Amino acid sequence: MTSLPIERPSAVTAEWRDLFALTKPRVMTLVVFTGLCGLLAAPVPVHPVLGFTAVLCIALGAGAAGALNQWYEADLDKKMKRTAGRPLPAGRMEPRSALHFGVGLSAFSVVLMDIATNHLAAAILAVSILFYVVIYTVWLKRRTAQNIVIGGAAGAFPPLIGWAAATGDVTLLPVLLFAIIFLWTPPHFWALSLFVKSDYAAAGVPMMPVVAGLQSTRRQAFLYTLPMVAAAIAPWPLGLTGWIYGAASIALNALFLLFAAAVLANKATDPAKMKPEKRLFGYSVLYLFALFGALVIDARLIP
């Protein structure tokens, strides 16, 4: 008499890993860093516990926005190679779980920020989450090639939040920090979209290279670099920072201009020949880390 084979349950990815992936941890790293820099550059000392809580809330808010973005865009993610392995398009998580996770994390981050710091910081955090989810993800992403331009404001809020958490107000310097990230987003993201154009085209997302073509995207990426450079250098001549930030800003922005000019000069249509675009994309991440790091060093070393 033969025994029936025993069915063994298939391996399932651990839930915490999928929830963590929903928060877009690589994107969150930059968000948390710029938020921390805004807090540390503020002229008001913050208790370490409250400072840690404020940065944690920024991280949770960014993660919540990322989760809601992935919940809404699961159909697009499934069509693109670089996002097909995410929890929802890969079928490792129910959409409802992602929605509940994102909404719950959003509410928790805003309420905790309000309790730990002040109403203004909590309000800006709430606006940043809503802007990314409603304005960028729902309204702009599928409708216009200017999606990343307007939607880039969502990623520019963290230094404002950090500064407001420390001081309870917003002055010219954090506004300039907001402007830097806002203007940095188009050249940064368009550099990426140039060599992954086929992904966006397959998903039907109207990113600039798909709608306007490669050369137009290169030209606009360069044009946005010019006001970004002006905004990044401005804090020094305006007397808002010292010479450490000023020297670092000039050097970093000169390199950014060179890389953006190389992208503008490139005529390649084959992604394999888009080394200037890949170089600009990689440098743009380093640029923001270095620029904001110089800001904190300058604020802490120069009275």
Automatic annotation (TrEMBL):
<feature type="transmembrane region" description="Helical">
    <location>
        <begin position="280"/>
        <end position="302"/>
    </location>
</feature>
<keyword id="KW-0812">Transmembrane</keyword>
<dbReference type="InterPro" id="IPR000537">
    <property type="entry name" value="UbiA_prenyltransferase"/>
</dbReference>
<dbReference type="GO" id="GO:0008495">
    <property type="term" value="F:protoheme IX farnesyltransferase activity"/>
</dbReference>
<feature type="transmembrane region" description="Helical">
    <location>
        <begin position="119"/>
        <end position="139"/>
    </location>
</feature>
<dbReference type="InterPro" id="IPR044878">
    <property type="entry name" value="UbiA_sf"/>
</dbReference>
<dbReference type="GO" id="GO:0005886">
    <property type="term" value="C:plasma membrane"/>
</dbReference>
<feature type="transmembrane region" description="Helical">
    <location>
        <begin position="221"/>
        <end position="238"/>
    </location>
</feature>
<comment type="pathway">
    <text>Porphyrin-containing compound metabolism; heme O biosynthesis; heme O from protoheme: step 1/1.</text>
</comment>
<keyword id="KW-0808">Transferase</keyword>
<keyword id="KW-1003">Cell membrane</keyword>
<keyword id="KW-1133">Transmembrane helix</keyword>
<protein>
    <recommendedName>
        <fullName>Protoheme IX farnesyltransferase</fullName>
        <ecNumber>2.5.1.141</ecNumber>
    </recommendedName>
</protein>
<feature type="transmembrane region" description="Helical">
    <location>
        <begin position="160"/>
        <end position="184"/>
    </location>
</feature>
<dbReference type="GO" id="GO:0048034">
    <property type="term" value="P:heme O biosynthetic process"/>
</dbReference>
<feature type="transmembrane region" description="Helical">
    <location>
        <begin position="244"/>
        <end position="268"/>
    </location>
</feature>
<dbReference type="InterPro" id="IPR030470">
    <property type="entry name" value="UbiA_prenylTrfase_CS"/>
</dbReference>
<dbReference type="Pfam" id="PF01040">
    <property type="entry name" value="UbiA"/>
</dbReference>
<feature type="transmembrane region" description="Helical">
    <location>
        <begin position="52"/>
        <end position="72"/>
    </location>
</feature>
<keyword id="KW-0472">Membrane</keyword>
<comment type="function">
    <text>Converts heme B (protoheme IX) to heme O by substitution of the vinyl group on carbon 2 of heme B porphyrin ring with a hydroxyethyl farnesyl side group.</text>
</comment>
<feature type="transmembrane region" description="Helical">
    <location>
        <begin position="27"/>
        <end position="46"/>
    </location>
</feature>
<feature type="transmembrane region" description="Helical">
    <location>
        <begin position="93"/>
        <end position="113"/>
    </location>
</feature>
<keyword id="KW-0350">Heme biosynthesis</keyword>
<dbReference type="InterPro" id="IPR006369">
    <property type="entry name" value="Protohaem_IX_farnesylTrfase"/>
</dbReference>
<comment type="similarity">
    <text>Belongs to the UbiA prenyltransferase family. Protoheme IX farnesyltransferase subfamily.</text>
</comment>
